[in-house]
Structures are given as structure tokens and as C-alpha cells.
TrEMBL record, chain B:
Heterohexadecamer of 8 large and 8 small subunits. The basic functional RuBisCO is composed of a large chain homodimer in a 'head-to-tail' conformation. In form I RuBisCO this homodimer is arranged in a barrel-like tetramer with the small subunits forming a tetrameric 'cap' on each end of the 'barrel'. GO terms for biological process: reductive pentose-phosphate cycle. RuBisCO catalyzes two reactions: the carboxylation of D-ribulose 1,5-bisphosphate, the primary event in carbon dioxide fixation, as well as the oxidative fragmentation of the pentose substrate. Both reactions occur simultaneously and in competition at the same active site. Although the small subunit is not catalytic it is essential for maximal activity. InterPro entries: RuBisCO_ssu, RuBisCO_ssu_dom, RuBisCO_ssu_sf. This is Ribulose bisphosphate carboxylase small subunit. The gene is cbbS. Belongs to the RuBisCO small chain family. Residues 4-103 form the Ribulose bisphosphate carboxylase small subunit domain. HAMAP family: RuBisCO_S_bact. One of its GO terms (molecular function) is ribulose-bisphosphate carboxylase activity.
Length: 326, 139
């Protein structure tokens, strides 16, 4: 069993010989986890995850562990072994722009493939969608959202806003109570993922011990390294049919190093904003040029000057207003 | 007398799993699912009271079943039906409607004859239940 389980991690896949019990066409009473894994359609999702998301190694490993647990649980069920209904509620903590929402989307797909949620859709909400404005408004609002999320994944962004200790008449508490009740009683109907900054989520969990105990998986998203950010930027450009010229790439690496040291740095999101501004400058540069028609190359290449014009190089934050952490 | 209105009404009452499957079918077709209730079983009583709003944006039947459970808690002694409304162009009407809850005792209908001018007779049906005021009919 151990060998087959190992085979779920991709690097071990080529090395680990199939365990005797796991050979195709195994005797009844044996179970082939590997075949299960293939049949569930999970390999594609994990491949996609590896290709689309840069870095985040600990998180990808954690996802594989969860998938392995769910697959083993399913195999155990087939033999009539006791299976505790797994608690799949999760909390994603990390700085802005580290890929929490993107991963939540993937999580919904993974849980759907494994059969732990029936539809695999993701409903993203914040405090506004859950908490009402007057007495008696909160419960229907929260229930409405839960109804919408049934059969899928409910993603509560910046969940710590739900609890506002400084205002004792805040309706957030009511919403929390309903959520807790549903998280406990309708575990097979929906999976709740809470997300937010690490320190504030910690305080939120301290104030609401009920949440902490009902959330099984606490996943921390690390900040990206500089090379990872550069790769993210290049992928984003690629998706939009742009590319960086060699000089621009060097300048952009420099930009990232500078930008990281400045306040309000939001990882992937800051990169995206920087590239959006570079595209803007590229467009106006092309527009002002008057030496004949443009080639496809002109339209797709972002030059060093497009990035060098950024205020980051002048020593002031690139954008004072647009990039408050969110 | 057992009320037969809408789809499946000649079958035994649907179980919750069967209702869930039907509701999921409606959702998968893209229809808005509604829960309606009434205590006036007359066949011409088309417009029943709605429980909450039509559910347009639900992906899974569990959400509807939760609403049905709370509707039954309040109006468990009345008729409750679930309908699927197809808003797509050319249909714009209810595609499926079936009763999911009925009173324990259904007294049925009386046929009334009214002698009219000449030898003419007018016929009408009236539910025995509606002799009582609304809200007290099945309790």
C-alpha cells in the first residue's frame, strides 16, 4: 500500500514499481490506487497546476497529500472499512497576490473529481455578501449564499472581516454562527475555504475557536521569489500575446527587485499591474512613432524603455493609490 | 380524495431522493426552480403563494431541498409544489411542476348544480377544504 501511495507524487511515479496488490487486473480484494488516480482525472489537474502556477511547492505537495488521503478513504470504503467523513474545510493564509483564489478554483475542481463535492463550482464571497445591514438581514443573506454554494466550494475572501470585536452590535457574529452550523452539519454539501492575511486570520481563529477546530487544513502561501515573479510576469504576457525583449527582461528583473522592497507589494497582482502599465506605455510609444506601418513584432514586443519609465526606478512607489493591499 | 395536479401526481408521493433528482434535472436544464404553497386545491387556482424567490443561480439541488425543508416546517399542512421555469426564448413558461407535499387529509371536491334560466344547469366544483377560512383548512 505504501508503495502505491508514493506513486501519486509525480517524481516517484517512474521509480516506484507497482506494488503486487496494485497490478492491473489484481485479484478481488485488492485495490489499485494508481488506476483510481488515473481514472479520477486528477493527473490532468495536477499537471495543469504544475504548468500554470509557478512555485508554491509546499502547497502543491499539500494538495497531493489531501488527494491521496481522499483516494485511500475511497478505497477503504470499498472494503467496508470505517471511514470518518473527512473534514475538508480549509484556510488559506498568505500575503496578497500569492494565488489563493486561483488555488481555490483548482481545489474545487480537485474535490469534484474526487467526488467530495457534487458540482465543483466556486462561489467567492466577502463580508458584504454574508453580513446584512440591519437586524434580521444577515441570516437570509448568509443562507442565500450557502444555498448558492451547495454542491461546490464556498470561498470566503478576507474572512477575518466577518468578526469585528470592536463593535459588539456587529452582525458578523450571526453570520459566523450560521456558517459554523452548516460547516458541521452539511459537510457533504459544501466545502468552505477561508482566506486572508496570516496574522489577521490567526487573530480571527483565536477569537472564534469554533472555526479553528472545524477547519482541517491550514495552508500557508509563501511569498514568491524574484525569479518566480519574473516567470509569472512572462507567463502573463504570453497569455496576452506579448513578450519582453532581452533588455526589457533584464530591466524587469531589476524592477521586481526594487518593487519588492517597496510598500504595498502584492506579489502576482503587482506584477500584473506593472505589466499593464508597461503595455500602456508601449501603446503610446507606438502611437507616437511615425516611421511607417507597424509589424507584428512591434506590436508584441515590450521594450526596456516601456519598463524603465516606471516611477519605481525614480525611487518612489510606482502607484500610491491603486495598489493598497487587498 | 387525492389531488392530482402536475407531473407525477398519479404516482405515489415522491421521496426526498426522487425530488432531489427532479430538482437537479431542472437545474441542469437551466430552469429556475420555485417552491410554491397553497391551501386552496381548486384546479383553477393557478397562482400559488411563493416561498421565497425563484432560485435562478443555484447549481445543486441541496440548496433547493434546504428551502423545501424550511417551507415544510412552516406550511407542512398545505400543498407544496416545485416548478421549473424555463426563461429561454420561445418557452418562457413553466416546464415542470409537481406536488411535493400534501395535507394528511384531503377531503376532495363537491359538485354543485345551479338551476339557471330555462332548464339550463350550471356545474361548478368546490373544495370541501375551502369552507374554512384560509390558514385553518387543513389543521
Amino acid at each position: 500500500m505504501a508503495a502505491t501511495l508514493m506513486a501519486i507524487s509525480p517524481d516517484a511515479a517512474d521509480v516506484a514499481p507497482a506494488a503486487p496488490g496494485a497490478a492491473p487486473g489484481a485479484a478481488p480484494g485488492a485495490v489499485d490506487l494508481r488506476a483510481d488516480f488515473e481514472a479520477s482525472g486528477l493527473p490532468e489537474i495536477f499537471d495543469q497546476l504544475d504548468q500554470e502556477m509557478v512555485g508554491l511547492a509546499p502547497i502543491k505537495r499539500r494538495l497531493r497529500e489531501i488527494a491521496a488521503l481522499l483516494l485511500v478513504d475511497r478505497a477503504r470504503q470499498r472494503f467496508g472499512l470505517a471511514v470518518g467523513a473527512p473534514t475538508l474545510h480549509m484556510s488559506f493564509t498568505g500575503n496578497p497576490g500569492t494565488g489563493k483564489t486561483t488555488l481555490a478554483l483548482k481545489m474545487a475542481a480537485i474535490l469534484h473529481r474526487l467526488g467530495y463535492v457534487r458540482r465543483g463550482h466556486l462561489v467567492t464571497v466577502t463580508r458584504d455578501d454574508l453580513v446584512g445591514q440591519y437586524i434580521g438581514h444577515t441570516a437570509p443573506k448568509t443562507k442565500e449564499v450557502l444555498k448558492r454554494a451547495a454542491g461546490g466550494v464556498l470561498f470566503i475572501d478576507e474572512a477575518y472581516y466577518l468578526y469585528r470585536p470592536e463593535n459588539e452590535r456587529d452582525y458578523g457574529q450571526e453570520s459566523i454562527e450560521i456558517l459554523l452550523q452548516v460547516m458541521e452539519n452539511q459537510r457533504d454539501d459544501l466545502v468552505v475555504i477561508l482566506a486572508g492575511y496570516a496574522d489577521r486570520m490567526d487573530r480571527f481563529f483565536q477569537a472564534n475557536p469554533g472555526f479553528r477546530s472545524r477547519v482541517a487544513h491550514h495552508i500557508d502561501f509563501p511569498d514568491y521569489g524574484e525569479e518566480e515573479l519574473l516567470e509569472i510576469g512572462e507567463r502573463q504576457l504570453e497569455a496576452m500575446n506579448y513578450r519582453l525583449s532581452p533588455q526589457a527582461k533584464a530591466v524587469f528583473a531589476q524592477y521586481i527587485a526594487l518593487r519588492r522592497g517597496q510598500p504595498h507589494f502584492a506579489n502576482g497582482r503587482s506584477i500584473r499591474n506593472a505589466l499593464d502599465r508597461a503595455r500602456l506605455r508601449q501603446a503610446s510609444r507606438l502611437f507616437q512613432r511615425d516611421d511607417g506601418p507597424l509589424s507584428v513584432d512591434d506590436l508584441t514586443v515590450i521594450e526596456a524603455e516601456d519598463i524603465l519609465a516606471s516611477r519605481v526606478f525614480a525611487g518612489t512607489p510606482d502607484s500610491q493609490v491603486g495598489e493598497a493591499p487587498s | 380524495m387525492r389531488l392530482t395536479q402536475g407531473t407525477f401526481s398519479f404516482l405515489p408521493d415522491l421521496t426526498d431522493e426522487q425530488i432531489t433528482a427532479q430538482v437537479q434535472y431542472c437545474i441542469d436544464q437551466g430552469w429556475a426552480v420555485n417552491i410554491e404553497f397553497t391551501d386552496d386545491p381548486h384546479p383553477r387556482n393557478t397562482y400559488w403563494d411563493m416561498w421565497g424567490l425563484p432560485m435562478f443561480d443555484i447549481r445543486d439541488a441541496a440548496g433547493v431541498m434546504g428551502e423545501l425543508a424550511s417551507c415544510r416546517k412552516v406550511y407542512g399542512d398545505r400543498y407544496i409544489r416545485i416548478s421549473g421555469f424555463d426563461a429561454s426564448h420561445g418557452w418562457e413558461s413553466v416546464r415542470l411542476s409537481f406536488i411535493v407535499n400534501r395535507p394528511a387529509n384531503e377531503p376532495g371536491f363537491a359538485l354543485e348544480r345551479q338551476e339557471s334560466d330555462g332548464r339550463r344547469v350550471r356545474y361548478t366544483t368546490r373544495s370541501y377544504a375551502t369552507q374554512l377560512p384560509e390558514g385553518e383548512r387543513y389543521s
